[in-house]
Every structure is written in structure tokens, then in C-alpha cells.
Amino acid sequence: MRRPSTIEHMTDDAPAAGTQLPGSIGILGGTGPQGRGLARRFAAAGYQVVIGSRDAERAAAVAADYAAVGSVTGAANADAAGADLVVVAVPYDGHAALLTELAPKLTGKIVVDCVNRMGFDKQGPYAIAVPAGSSAQEAAEILPDSTVIAAFHHVSSTLLDDPEVEQIELDVLVLGEDRAAVEVVNRLATAIPGARGIYGGRLRNAAQVEALTANLIAINRRYKAHAGLRITDV
Amino acid sequence: MRRPSTIEHMTDDAPAAGTQLPGSIGILGGTGPQGRGLARRFAAAGYQVVIGSRDAERAAAVAADYAAVGSVTGAANADAAGADLVVVAVPYDGHAALLTELAPKLTGKIVVDCVNRMGFDKQGPYAIAVPAGSSAQEAAEILPDSTVIAAFHHVSSTLLDDPEVEQIELDVLVLGEDRAAVEVVNRLATAIPGARGIYGGRLRNAAQVEALTANLIAINRRYKAHAGLRITDV
């Protein structure tokens, strides 16, 4: 079940810097629906997953739910940040404070921001405006010594966390400045059966990808669906 | 070739207000690539298309290119605005001024805004920020007596305007407040063979749909594609 540690089509050569797939994945805020769903799929694909939470005991309790799926442990967010690659799945409210606190632990790592800045009112979902433009750009400002990638915004946590769902029709848009890191996360996306990871542009174009979650929620409500995106002609 | 004038599944009853498909479609800025591509597909589906331009002679010359496809004429934008339904396909630069000038002619009509607010620099495409939040919201502010719908942002003008392309893998996201008008534009989208029109949320969620064009351009450049969107599970 353990994944190969380098990208398969590169095995003829020494792996390029940054292209190694992670052995362990920490998920900050991993006890929420998005974090749990990703934990399930990453663990099933053979990664060692550390679910992080403000409350280490709660993280351990959630991790126990996935004992039969693969290697999933629970820890405080600060310990989950020690993994090879770190996914940020916290609510937007605590995003900046947590990353500021954990910046030293995240130095030199790929940090995958999948935070959706969503608000809801009587008219339904909408994207919350943030000073940096997007959650991912905010992360990049706070973490200049990490490689920030934006991805996994549009996954349905319901489908991800349902063990009966064997395939998910979904392309994961992966945004970032570092091509090797984008490749790593593109490959990580294939841990979700049926999904592809597709480069979606630079971080300055992350705002609309994050905000599009509001449209997908509106679609879900209108059509009683778990809508996802596919990119055609790719 | 003439389309039925009411939505088929409603033929048992009198048509609800606003659900009638248009007989004629005016395309403001219709001599540009997006406008030409839409003109081709709308005309092929049996609509009477009026290509609008600042320069009526230029509009007539472009319309002549589509004489074999269907009913396509050229006119000044002010005359194209007299059609049953009006599509706005101008560059963002002239958007507000043109709609302000034509507001009286657009009263009571469905106005479909498909303007992409795009800029390009050395790093590639990006979305231009606008005070109203989106081009569609700007149109709605300028045209309080029209029914503004946002749609057709992600169509590849290259594929649309290529007569050899018989099917386009594409869902057209259709945003607006008025459900009947959304339905009309959903149906209009099916003039593009292979395409579906799908409700994509309220106009306040149009900004990210417009801006996502930058991501699709980035995808096109990386993968040498004419990328489009499909919404899964709908």
C-alpha cells in the first residue's frame, strides 16, 4: 500500500528536487468534513496521515474512525505540521493565526491550502472577500519559506468520506508558482479514485477557484447534486 | 430551422411570463471572436441573429461570413439592441458606456452579459477587479429595468467559430436572480451542440465565474488545449 516515493515517469533519472511524493501528510483542521474526507482517501492510497486539531484528543478520536482504512493518527495541529506535506483545511476564521504560529514548522515544505472562504445568508452561499485576494495568497504571504499550493477546494466532503463511493467524477485544480510542487499535488489528487489533478494557474488566480465553491453549492441546492468540475479537452 | 417559441415541456399550459425563447438575438460587440462564435451557433440553431458593432458596415461585412449558416445580419450596436434578447460581448473597456447609452432600448429584455474582465502580463492572464464586483453586476446596476443574466464566459471562440467542430464538451454556467430568464438562457446554451446550460448561482457569485476564464487560459497554455468546464453529478 505504500506509494512509490518518486514520480513514476521520472524513475529513469534521479528525482528532481521537490518532485518526491510525501510519505506523510498532515491535515491541519483535519477533524472537519473536508479534512476527514481527504484523510480517508489519502490513507486508502497508502499515505501516512496525521489528522491535526486544536484538541489532540479529539484528533485521536477522529483518527480512530479510519483505523481500518490505513495509517491515520491524530495529533495537535503543531505536531501534524511536522509531516512531509501539510494540508490546511481549517475554517477561514482561524487561518492566518494558525499559519503564523506554525510557520517555523512549515519551512521548506509544500503547504496545500484548500480553505473555502464561504459565507451564507438568506440568499445562500457567497465568497467572503479577504485582503490578500485569496486564502492561498494569504498563506503565501504568511509562509514565505514554504511552497504554497492551492488545491482540493471543490471536493464534496460527503462523497470523499463515504466508503461506498468508489469513484468521484472530479478534476482537482492545482495552483501555484512552483512547477515541481504542482506536479506533486497533481499526483496527490489521484489518491481520490476517479479524480485528476490539473494545473489551474498561478496563485494570483486562486481567488476565483476558492470562490467558485459558492457556485457549486448553489448548483447542489438547485439540482440536488454533489456537483464537481471536470476540465474538458485536457 | 426556426425554433419553437416556447419551452417544449411547458406546451401543455400557457407559457409563463419570461419563458419564451427569443426569435431574434442581438450581439453587442458581435464582430469579436466570442461574438462571431456565438453568432454562428445561434444562427445554426435557427435564431435570427443581429451582429452589432460600433461600425455598422463592419458588422454587415462580418455577418456576410455567416450567410450560409442561417439568418445573420449586421447593424450598429444600437440597432442590434432592438432584438428580443441581447448578448453583451464587448471588451470590458467599453462595457459601462455602451450599456448606459443603450439602457432605454434594453428595458424589459433579457440581457446576457458574457464579458470576461481579463488582463495579460508577463505572468499570463489575470482577472481585472471592477468596482461592481463583476461585469454582470455592473450591467445589472446600469440596467435596473432589464433582466441581466451572466453566461457564456467559458466558451472557446476558436471551437465555436469552427464549422468543422460538431460537438463542444462544455457546460455553460448561467447566473441570475430571475428563474424564468435563467431557464431561457439555459435553453439558449443548447444551441451549442454538446453544451448544456446549468444554473450557476446568483449574480453576486458571477465574479468568480468571469474570472475563472483566466484559469482556463492558463490551462490552455500548459496543456495545449481548448479547455472547457463540465459540471458532474448534474
TrEMBL record, chains A, B:
For this protein, the record's InterPro entries field holds:
NAD(P)-bd_dom_sf, NpdG, P5C_Rdtase_cat_N, STEAP_metalloreductase
Q: Which domain of life is it from?
A: Bacteria
GO BP annotations of the record are: NADPH regeneration
Molecular function (GO) terms listed?
coenzyme F420 binding; NADP binding; oxidoreductase activity, acting on NAD(P)H
What keywords would UniProt list here?
A: Oxidoreductase
Look up keyword Plastid and say if it applies.
no
UniProt xrefs under Gene3D superfamilies: NAD(P)-binding Rossmann-like Domain
Record-annotated Pyrroline-5-carboxylate reductase catalytic N-terminal domain positions: 25-116
Query: What is the protein's given name?
Result: Reduced coenzyme F420:NADP oxidoreductase
Q: Which source organism? A: Microlunatus soli
